[in-house]
Amino acid sequence: MTLSPLRQRLLRTACAVGLSCAVSTSAIAGDTAAKAVETYLQVQSAGLPGKVTVSLEGRGTDALPACEAPEVFLPPGVTPWGRISVGVRCHAERPWTRFVQARVAVEGRYLVAARAIDAGRALGAGDVVERTGDLTRLPRSVVTSAAELVGVVSANRVAPGAPIRKELLRGVAVIQQGQAVKVVAQGPGFVVSTEAKALSGAAVGAVVQAKTLDGRVIRGVADEEGQVRLVQ
């Protein structure tokens, strides 16, 4: 339930003079938290390859306690992509933290096979066709630009209409030399990440070196998202 600023002020005034407003204040609290969550996710998803739409799922923020200035955050390792859990924290006299379910949809273009593509075939313009859809419902490695197919061959047979994925191709560089990359270390119960600069280019699954901001040189494996994953 979304209330206009004027209606919100009137309802707060009613509360101040002792009139019945239990339902109204709940609506205001939920509306405030909903706007905070949506704004936060829009900022966090800036730069994603498509039109971003944020929606709350289930009961959303309706069941949250009242809070004048809710603080929104993402749990460690969670990125604004697809269905996610979003944290809402309130630093009130009685502080609380709750989690709500949200969905970040990214409407964008991607490539599918226009016909059957045999393994070892060099891809040309007639082999692929562009489609539009929610990229979050596709593999993260789906190819979104024909420029990524220049000079590559299919590593496996691709069926007609199947999305073109980077791991199905040879020679697709997901990391370029000098590119800013995220270095990720993951283990039981934890995910740690930092920023670095790639010292060489790499395709998916290739070993790559990167230099962190404090000057350390690390080695990891390039994944389909263009990140460097440290091998534990």
Automatic annotation (TrEMBL):
Main location: periplasm
Ranges for domain SAF: 108-170
Signal recorded as keyword: yes
Keywords: Bacterial flagellum biogenesis, Cell projection, Cilium, Flagellum, Periplasm, Signal
Gene3D superfamilies the UniProt entry points to: 2.30.30.760, Antifreeze-like/N-acetylneuraminic acid synthase C-terminal domain
Localization: Periplasm
Family recorded in the similarity comment: Belongs to the FlgA family.
Name this polypeptide is given: Flagella basal body P-ring formation protein FlgA
Source organism of the structure: Variovorax boronicumulans
